[in-house]
Give the backbone structure.
Amino acid sequence: MVSFWSNLRGKKSKEPTLTPAEQPVVNTEQNTGIKVLGEATFTPVVMSRFEDLFKREEWNYEIDADGDLTTSFDNCGFFIHLSPHNQEKPEDGVRIAIVGQPSFIVQSENLAEAESFIYQWHRSKWLPKAYTVELRDEEGVRILLEHTAFFGKTGATDAQLERVFRAGVATALEFVEEFVKSVDTVSREES
């Protein structure tokens, strides 16, 4: 069978096949509430699972007063925030927000240029969601970058959580790299 994507590229390739270990399997033990995919286990999404990921990867992090995990990569601060998808039924699932905050500000005179860049970015790329936030104590705006994911009540595998986090950081850093090439910014230390 030829895949849709390989047809678009003009190449013919076989569809990937799953080995028996990769085939979805539901745990046969009753009342466990845990689904198994091969050797991967779906467990509830809680902040301690992100802490475990950071410890495994030996990344620096802190847990702030709100219970969010905070870190930074390449002069861009990030925090991970978990919230119930449905406030009335929090057991229905969790929304994960990976929010990036670059270390620069955009001066007020460059606001239109920054908003134009963000508009064009959103026309061609889905992630990250970018927006400006006015600064109270300083002149200018800060850019915030958001990557969100939702996991239902069955939870997620460790690999899924790692992919969500890495995608959030990678798309934010890609945005920052392109943004600073196009819009004049001032580092936080210069302001």
Summary: Confidence is low (pLDDT under 50) at residues 1-16, 22-32. DSSP finds four helices and eleven strands in the chain. The helical segments are 4-9, 47-57, 111-124, 158-182.
